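[User] I wish I could look at a protein chain and see how it folds. I have put the entry right below:
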Amino acid sequence: MDRALHLPVASLPRLDDVLGLFERGEAAGYDAAYLPETWGRDAVTTLALAAERTETIDLGTSILNVYSRSPALVGATAATLQEAADGRFRLGVGPSGPAVIENWHGVDFGNPLRRTREYVDVIRQVLSGEEVTYEGEYVDLQGFRLRCAPPDPAPPVEVAGMGPKAVELAGRFGDGWHALLFTPDGLRDRLDDLARGAELGDRDPDDLRTVLSLTCCVLEDGDRARELARRHLAFYVGGMGTYYRDALARQGFEERANAVHDAWQAGDREAALAAFDDDLLDRLAVCGTPAEAEVALDRFAAVEGLDAAAVSFPRGAEVDEIHETIDALAPV
């Protein structure tokens, strides 16, 4: 299993701190570094700068949502970043969730699966260098064509998703799947959906790259590491609408997911954290001391079909704690 990074965009005080994480990850031997785009710094500008600062590590989005930019623009952006990174770019796209799309971007969440499918189709046409003609339910365009040489090779187009149909779509139309907030057993269930999608698309599942964004915090102060990871995950389950709560419920933790969500929504943060018990934390995160973390990481490495674990960081972690985690989990 490869080890990648899933880097924060908003919690660090300076852009230079974020770019330093790309450099640190490359020096430590990580295979790739992915950048999400939620609030804070935009992924495109940051990755363009990271391309200038690095030489070998793959760079990717995880994810660009399929609402705030047109598909033609996403395709042109992917072509540009592939050129900037000398062929090291990987495009990750997905619908995100209604809390982000409707509340932050002011766009109806609509039919996220169909919209994602249409975006993948158009992006691929753009990257081919041919003139784009497309008539879909959400995307209807004609006459667009790159006025520069198309990237060779074209960057892979990977798809994020959490539910069974979303993961099936990734297997049928994407070059890979980006996963988030999964236990090892939950991941295995969704990998079956990915394989089914690949079969429907007449594709080989082994050709698809599966990346799990995995919350990690590894410190000599193991209690501090666990506290940071617990608070981060409780925020996602409790504070980011119902999207992550429902994903956790599908994995067999409905009662605990509802307890975390309901307490958080009621403003009782301590009750939400208490509901996010040690058992659930250990199923979803790699956290604690370095020795404890390696054991936890092995549970995910044992999942057949998982190609890479992307080390992600709690939103409350300080820069030095992120550095400590990167170094502790660096590939051997």
